[in-house]
Amino acid sequence: PRDDKPIRYQDIEMRVVTVPPAILRAVINLC
């Protein structure tokens, strides 16, 4: 279980980092 937790945490972080760029672009397009 300990090995599964670290891997899942990294996956979530990668997804969160890939989301900000898209949101920033959407805000710029709206402006």
UniProtKB/TrEMBL annotation:
Species the sequence originates in: marine sediment metagenome
Protein name: Uncharacterized protein
Lineage of origin: unclassified sequences, metagenomes, ecological metagenomes
